[in-house]
Amino acid sequence: MAAGPPVVAAAGRLWQVEAPLGRGSSAAVFRARCLGQPRSSPAAVKEFLPPGSGPGGGGGDYGFRKERAALEELRGHRNIVTLYGVFTNCSSTKGPSHSLLLELLDVSVSELLVHSSQHGCSMWMTQHCARDVLEALAFLHHKGYVHADLKPRNILWSAEQECFKLIDFGLSFKEGNQDVKYIQTDGYRAPEAELQNYLSQAGLQGGTQCTSAVDLWSLGIVLVEMFSGMKLKHIVQSWEWKANNAAIIDHIFVSKSVENSAIPAYHLRDLLKSMLHEEQEKRATAAEALCSPFFSIPFAPHIEDLVMLPTPVLRLLNILGDASLQNDKEFEDIVDDIREECSKYGQIVSLFAPKENPGKGQVFVEYANAGDSKAAQRALTGKRFDGKFVVATFYPLSAYKRGYVYQTVL
C-alpha cells in the first residue's frame, strides 16, 4: 500500500494488505487476506489517491464516494462485484485516503482475449459472458444506473460463483444526471458518447444525452471481439464502420469458420446487430437482449475454457487407464493415492472417478474453495502419476453437482 499500516480493519475483520494488483490514475488495487482465518477467501483493496495527489491535484475522494454509493445501491446481484466494506488510511503523509474492500475476482475478459487472439473465444464462453453481463446490466439499468465504462478489463470471472461480474463503477451515473464529461473508453465508446465527449472538449453544449444504451453498445463490441478474436478499436473508428457496421459484422461472421451449425452463430450475429445500432433509440435493451434465441442453445466448453476459468472443482485427465478401471483393487489404490496427493493443496469436499462413459477414466476433485483448486491445478499439471503425465483442468461446479459430465470439445 502507498503508505500506512499493512493491517487494516474493515467489515468487522482485520485484513493484511499484500501484493499490488494494478494502478490507475486515481486509485491502486491490492490483494488482502483476512488475519486469523487462513482458509477464508482473499479480498481486493481499492485505495483512492488522497486529495491533491492525483493528476491535476484532484485525488480520488469524489471517485471513492461515487463508486461506494453505486456499489452499495447495487449490492447483492451475483454479476456485480461485491463491496465488503470501506475504511480510511489516516497515516499517509499526503493526507487521508479512502479505500473500498471488494470481492477479489479472477481472470478478466481482456486476458481471455489475449489467449484467444488467433481463433476467438468458444461459443460456450461467449454465451456465458453475454448472459452474465446482460443480467448485470438489466439490474443496474432497472436501478437507474449507467455503467459508462464497460470494456474487457472491467468484466472479471468469479471462480467461486462461476460467473462473470462487472467491476469499476468510477464513471457510472444515474440516467438523466450525468456528472462526468468524458465517459467510456476508446474502442468501446458509443457514437452518442463520442459526440458528447467531442463537444465537451470543445467547450460546447448540445448533442444527444447519453443513456443506458451506451452500455449495450460497449458490450456488443466486447462480444464481437470475443467471437472473432480481433481487436476492433481501429475498425470502429473507421468511416466504413460508421457508414454500415452491419455489413462489417456480416463479413466477420461469414469469414470466421464455425465448428458447429451456423444457426447459433447467426443468432449471435443478430443479437450483436441489435446492440450496435448507430441510433441509441433503436438498440435493444439488456432485458430485450436476454430474450435472444442465442441463449436457448446449449454449448459445451472447450478444454481451453476449462483451463482458463478456475472453479472449486479440478478435473484430472490421463490418469486412469483401462487396466486400472477393470481391476477393482488397483482402481481403489490409485484413487486413494490421488486423494492423498490432492489433499496436499487444500480441503477435499468430494472425489469422483467414473468407471463408465461419460467421464470414464477422468477424476473430479471438489475443493472447499477455488483457491485450493487453483493451487492444485498449478502443481499437478504435467506431473507424472503412475507413469502418466497428468492434465489438470477446472470443471463447472454446477455441472459436477448435477452429476453432468460434458463431452468436452477439444
Notes on the structure:
- It contains 14 helices and 16 strands.
- Helix content is about 35%, strand content about 20%.
- It has helices at about 60-75, 110-115, 125-140, 190-200, 215-230, 235, 240-255, 260-275, 285-290, 305-310, 320-325, 330-340, 370-380, 395-400; strands at about 5-10, 15-25, 25-35, 45-50, 85-90, 95-105, 145, 155-160, 165, 175, 315, 350, 365, 385, 390, 390-395.
- It folds into three domains: about 5-105, Phosphorylase Kinase, domain 1; about 110-300, Orthogonal Bundle (Transferase(Phosphotransferase), domain 1); about 305-400, 2-Layer Sandwich (Alpha-Beta Plaits), CATH 3.30.70.330.
- The chain is an alpha+beta fold.
- The strands form five sheets. A six-stranded antiparallel beta sheet has the order 1-2-3-4-6-5, with helices on one face.
- Strand 8 (about 155-160) and strand 9 form a beta hairpin.
- GO terms for molecular function: ATP binding; protein serine/threonine kinase activity; ribonucleoprotein complex binding; RNA binding.
Map the helices and strands.
Blueprint: E1 7-10, E2 13-23, E3 27-34, E4 43-48, H1 61-73, E5 83-89, E6 97-103, H2 109-115, H3 123-142, E7 145-146, E8 155-158, E9 163-166, E10 173-174, H4 191-201, H5 213-228, H6 233-236, H7 239-255, H8 262-275, H9 286-289, H10 303-308, E11 313-317, H11 322-326, H12 328-342, E12 348-352, E13 363-367, H13 370-380, E14 384-385, E15 388-389, E16 391-395, H14 397-401
Antiparallel strand pairs: 1-2, 2-3, 3-4, 4-6, 5-6, 7-10, 8-9, 11-13, 11-16, 12-13, 14-15
